[in-house]
């Protein structure tokens, strides 16, 4: 992959797009996030890595309000998620999320899948919809698939349609939760290339991934989570020289 992403230079007065301050989240008696601190600046890519159960998905889901935090402060695109003094759907217009399962509508074409939400939310007419679909399908390298149905596409292509569907809302921030984990290895690369291209184009993103080489290459900030905490965070090079036993073991385990 030939990502040429350069880290956003720190600028005075620029607010983080995502800011966790001592964020806590419990499910019943189980505390899953035990005081997370993390800033993601506009244009930055943060990669969350760590063992299964360490709280990566929960942290990601808190960002777009799918989970409610129990403590601390979480600010996303200027909104205080602790206070919840705004409409969640307004936040979700600005924050796209893509999961491992792409959940496209099987009875709709690629173009219809991609434009369903913006047509509903923004009331696009047919020609505006077509233009928007063409634009976002081009971004994911599927310009020729607008009139295909999901079952006619490979898993990698379907996942790229799911990414295009998110992009069609013109998000300020994109969240990716292990979007390649369900794919055969030979299909993983095409999806990672699309994400790498978005990163190089300046999209702010937080991604959970097991693809360590990808995390190292594309992320400005790699965040190793362990038992509900940010155990180590830094540039991708931190993976070459772990400061903790836990990260050293994690890197060594090839997970
Ligand atoms: P990861 O994505 O790093 O594998 P998760 O954030 O999915 O970790 O899960 C962290 C912990 O929280 C796990 O112990 C998981 O079982 C638990 N958990 C996640 N979601 C829920 C839920 N909705 N209800 C109860 N426990 C949950
Ligand atoms: Mg997870």
Descriptive account of the structure:
With 255 residues, this protein is of the alpha/beta class. It contains 8 helices and 10 strands. It has helices at residues 56-63, 88-94, 110-122, 126-139, 155-167, 185-200, 212-218, 245-252, and strands at 18-27, 30-40, 45-50, 71-76, 79-80, 95-98, 173-177, 204-208, 221-226, 229-234. The strands form 2 sheets. It has a 6-stranded mixed sheet, with helices on both faces. Magnesium ion (MG) is lined by residues 56-57, 208. Its main location: membrane.
Main traits of this protein?
binds adenosine-5'-diphosphate, disordered N terminus, 34% helix, six-stranded mixed beta sheet, single chain, binds magnesium ion, 10 strands
Strand portion: 15-25%
- What is the radius of gyration? 18 Å
Distinct ligands: adenosine-5'-diphosphate, magnesium ion
In whole angstroms, the N-to-C terminal distance is: 21 Å
C-alpha geometry: globular
Query: What's the total count of β strands?
Result: 10
Helix content: 25-40%
The side-by-side strand order for the widest beta sheet comes to 6-7-8-3-9-10
Q: Would you spell out the secondary-structure blueprint of this structure?
A:
Elements (H helix, E strand, L loop, with lengths): L17 E10 L2 E11 L4 E6 L5 H8 L7 E6 L2 E2 L7 H7 E4 L11 H13 L3 H14 L15 H13 L5 E5 L7 H16 L3 E5 L3 H7 L2 E6 L2 E6 L10 H8 L3
Parallel strand pairs: 3-8, 3-9, 6-7, 7-8
Antiparallel strand pairs: 1-2, 1-4, 4-5, 9-10
The structure holds adenosine-5'-diphosphate and magnesium ion.
């Amino acid at each position: 992959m030939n990502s040429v992403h350069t880290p956003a230079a720190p600028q005075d007065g620029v607010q983080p797009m995502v800011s966790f301050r001592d964020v806590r989240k419990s499910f019943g008696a189980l505390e899953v996030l035990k005081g997370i601190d993390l800033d993601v600046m506009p244009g930055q890519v943060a990669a969350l890595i760590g063992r299964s159960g360490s709280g990566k998905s929960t942290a990601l889901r808190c960002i777009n309000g799918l989970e409610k935090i129990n403590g601390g402060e979480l600010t996303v695109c200027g909104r205080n998620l602790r206070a919840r003094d705004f409409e969640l759907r307004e936040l979700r217009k600005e924050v796209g999320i893509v999961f491992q399962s792409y959940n496209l509508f099987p009875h709709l074409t690629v173009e219809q899948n991609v434009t369903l939400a913006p047509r509903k939310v923004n009331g696009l007419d047919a020609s505006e919809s077509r233009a928007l679909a063409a634009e976002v399908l081009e971004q994911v390298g599927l310009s020729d698939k607008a009139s295909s149905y999901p079952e006619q596409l490979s898993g990698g292509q379907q996942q790229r349609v799911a990414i295009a569907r998110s992009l069609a809302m013109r998000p300020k921030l994109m969240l990716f939760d292990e979007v390649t984990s369900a794919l055969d290895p030979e299909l993983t690369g095409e999806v990672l290339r699309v994400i790498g291209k978005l990163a190089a184009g300046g999209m702010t993103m937080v991604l959970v991934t097991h693809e360590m080489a990808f995390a190292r290459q594309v992320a400005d900030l790699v965040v190793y989570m362990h038992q509900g905490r940010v155990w180590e965070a830094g540039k991708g090079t931190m993976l070459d020289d772990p400061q903790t036993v836990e990260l050293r073991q994690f890197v060594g385990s090839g997970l």
